[in-house]
Amino acid sequence: MFFAFTGLSFKVSVLSMSITGFLYAHYWRVASAWMKKQVLKTPAPERLTQADWPRSLKDPTGFYLECFRFFHQRLPAEIREHRTYFSQNRRGFGEDAMHVMWYSLFETLKPANFLEIGVYRGQTTSLVALLARLKGVPCTVFGISPFSTAGDAVSKYDKGINYYEDTLTNFRHFSLRAPILLKAYSTDVPAKELIKSQSWDLIYIDGNHDYEIALQDWQNCSESVKAGGVIVLDDSGLTTAYRPPLFATGGHPGPSRLAQEIDTKRFREILQVGHNRVFQKIA
Ligand SMILES: C[S@@+](CC[C@H](N)C(=O)[O-])C[C@H]1O[C@@H](n2cnc3c(N)ncnc32)[C@H](O)[C@@H]1O
């Protein structure tokens, strides 16, 4: 009797938790959709150029909303379609505004090479390859990732996906040339050798979000990015004035702490789009 009662109360509490979760998710979906509609009532700026970037550091929340509007009102259809594809079937994380960040960075830097740490299913690597094609700027795309379910203190990834093959399939979907992918943790010797192997125009750190690993990624990449080159540090907005709207996230503690510790004599922060912060090497 006792066990039957305990089992029943367990089931009741699981059921009430899942009802609460369901209601919260429903509320969140409705409220986010409403908020996006309100934000889109204001027109986006005609253009977003490097001259606008300093505004992102003074008013990161306002600038984020501008990028969100720019995505929906101004960005070329091919880039919006790329985001739509990766928003389906859990193919990618990120937010619409981040596509505007990459668009603006690519237009300004015209990178000849790009390295991503933490590839997942290839949303950003394929976006950079697509931008290169659209802009007619040759750019070699590299990625370092375990291509497994390897996560960290704040992230878990789905089982049952061949992440390596899936990334290549996603490139083929857009008829893009395959990227150069290294199946490794960013702290493995072959990964450190790849990072050191060239002087990088553009690097994106978005692998393991634990402070100690993100710090090692920063240390390795900051040596190998060229002077004038740029590192984008994902999920590092918690220690800024950025206040994410309901449909966005502020970042994680590890990368946010790391961003606060970056040597400002060697790197200058030039842009922030939501939880992504962008640092340019001075020398
Ligand atoms: C948030 S996802 C990256 C999303 C991707 N940057 C994009 O834009 O679509 C983080 C990825 O990093 C991978 N990862 C975890 N630990 C890593 C490590 N030590 N080195 C490189 N990648 C790692 C995860 O398996 C996952 O695929």
UniProtKB/TrEMBL annotation:
Top-level taxon: Bacteria
InterPro entries, per the entry: SAM-dependent_MTases_sf
Protein's name according to its UniProt entry: O-methyltransferase-like protein
Source organism per UniProt: Pedosphaera parvula (strain Ellin514)
